[in-house]
Design brief:
The complex is a heterodimer. Chain A has helices spanning about 15-25, 40-55, 70-80, 95-110, 125-135, 155-165, 250-265, 270-290, 320-325, 340-345, 365-380; strands at about 1-5, 65-70, 85-90, 110-115, 140-145, 170-175, 195, 210-215, 295, 310, 330, 335, 355. Chain A is an alpha/beta fold. By secondary structure, chain B is α+β, with helices and mostly antiparallel strands. Helix content of chain B is about 30%, strand content about 25%. Chain B has two helices and four strands; from the N terminus they run βαββαβ. The chains are: A alpha/beta, B alpha+beta. Chains A and B meet through helix 2 of A and helix 1 and strand 2 of B.
Chain lengths: ~375, ~70
């Protein structure tokens, strides 16, 4: 099976990640930050090392690097924890439901409101003009995805960050598709809330996510409970970052995530990984473009950093097409990719798209075989 | 007698340990052996040497605000 669904989760995981998970379970699977014994200390050390590595990797502070269960959890904490009664948020037209749905709920409960900024992939200036038109006196935050999970469109986050700072807004980024693939730095890029999964581009196990935040914001907690300290106090301790991490942490996941970060370094860093994926997508685009009937959603990306490609065949539903590809040994995702706004924007709401998202483990030969298979399906040689 | 610094946050204790290590001051993290009877448990950083300098470094980085106690 050729796995091309890395935008959902990366697979396979690097051997070093599997070893780290196994070693953790076999050798020191105690509860970090609770007991004082050697195994708990080793577990806590592992958590700290990963936290420190994440902070260094993304230009954040250790104390403001919070482990979450996934990117959606991190986004919920960022939005619900930071927005106050009556606040207004601007989000992009390419947001995942992880951003849309929490805001839709806040809006339904009359706690906060939001507007959608139509991104012009070809003109940052137009995008910024549109953002300007959405500003209100109560606008408090600009929250955008870094890379569309459907089309691979890369948003101009530095320009958007500058816009946010100019207008006194908090700037939040959903890095679900970019963490570990594109260079990101909380301080340099002026990001206040940076949300990411640990199990996609960072190669950690599922059940891991991270929120990094700047010193301009301190979200309220979403969940309260045991933190391993100040146990006699009834109120949640206000100590960073433990105040956000009540309950037992996903130690094995965090150990694997730490190994995933080291793996990225061993590959030559995000630049090398991105270059490999971009080259695979370029090859795919080239090979698919010879299919007459295909709808390739490749004209939406304004940068050379496209690592995800969506397409469809007009007379074949995306789910049927993905199922045929599955039968022929290719794992891709079809449908709407949990991103209602993105499909509305690009008129793909009728049938969705088939999405291809390779990783560092995929080869050009695999991509060419995949494109050949799509061609065969398009010509009805495979039914 | 071993001087130690109290931390409400394990992450802060770990950060402090790393920081002192960079100044060649060895320290070890332990559960607080004398937890506050009103607030409850925490962690301590037991400093093996150069306690005064350790205190200065930790204060400079905003990691502690109180003087060390003795085990």
């Amino acid at each position: 099976m050729i796995y091309l669904d890395n935008a959902a989760t990366s697979f396979p995981k690097p051997a070093c990640v599997l070893r780290a998970v196994q070693q953790c379970q076999f050798c020191f699977g105690a509860n970090p930050g609770r007991g004082g014994h050697k195994l708990a200390a080793k577990a806590a050390e592992t958590v700290f090392e990963t936290r420190q590595a994440l902070a260094a990797f993304f230009g954040g502070d250790v104390q403001r690097t919070v482990f979450c269960s996934n990117c959606t959890h991190a986004i919920n904490l960022a939005l619900k924890g930071s927005l106050k009664q009556g606040d207004h948020v601007i989000i992009s037209s390419l947001e995942h439901n992880a951003v849309l749905r929490p805001l839709e709920r806040l809006q339904a409960e009359h706690k906060a409101s939001y507007d959608v900024l139509q991104i012009d992939p070809k003109s940052t200036r137009t995008t910024l003009e549109r953002a300007q038109a959405l500003l209100r006196p109560e606008t408090r935050m600009l929250f955008v995805t870094h890379v569309s999970n459907v089309f691979g469109t890369v948003l101009p986050i530095r320009a958007l960050s500058l816009f946010a700072k100019t207008h006194g807004l908090l700037f939040g980024v959903d890095a679900a598709q970019s963490a570990g693939v594109l260079d990101l730095d909380l301080k340099r890029d002026g990001i206040d809330l940076l949300c990411m999964p640990g199990h996609k581009g960072l190669f950690g196990p599922m059940g891991t996510g991270v929120l990094l935040f700047s010193d301009r914001v301190q979200p309220e907690t979403l969940m309260e409970g045991g933190t391993g300290t100040l146990s006699l106090e009834k109120q949640q301790p206000q100590v960073l970052p433990e105040m956000y991490e009540s309950g037992t942490l996903n130690l094995t996941g965090i150990a694997g995530l730490g190994a995933g970060l080291r793996f990225i370094g061993s590959c030559g860093g995000t630049k090398a990984i991105c270059a490999h994926e971009v080259e695979l997508i370029r090859t795919l685009r080239e090979d698919l473009s010879v299919i007459r009937s295909i709808d390739l959603y490749d004209n939406l990306c304004s940068t050379a950093a496209q690592t995800v490609l969506s397409f469809s065949l007009p007379d074949l539903g995306s789910e049927t097409l993905a199922s045929l590809l599955d039968s022929n040994g290719f794992a891709v995702r079809a449908g709407y990719h949990c991103a209602a706004l993105a499909h509305t924007r690009y008129d793909t709401a009728a049938g969705g798209t088939v999405r291809v998202s390779p990783s560092i483990f995929n080869t050009k030969k695999q991509i060419k075989n995949f494109a050949f298979c799509v061609n065969q399906i398009a010509m009805r040689k495979i039914l | 007698m071993q001087p130690f610094f109290h931390f409400d946050s394990l992450t802060n204790a770990q950060t402090a340990k790393r920081l002192l290590g960079r100044h060649a001051i060895s320290a070890a993290i332990r559960r607080d052996p004398q937890p506050d009877r009103r607030r409850g448990c925490g962690f301590v950083l037991v400093v093996q040497n150069r306690t005064q300098q350790a205190q200065q470094i930790l204060e400079q980085h905003g990691l502690i605000s109180a003087t060390p106690r003795d085990l």
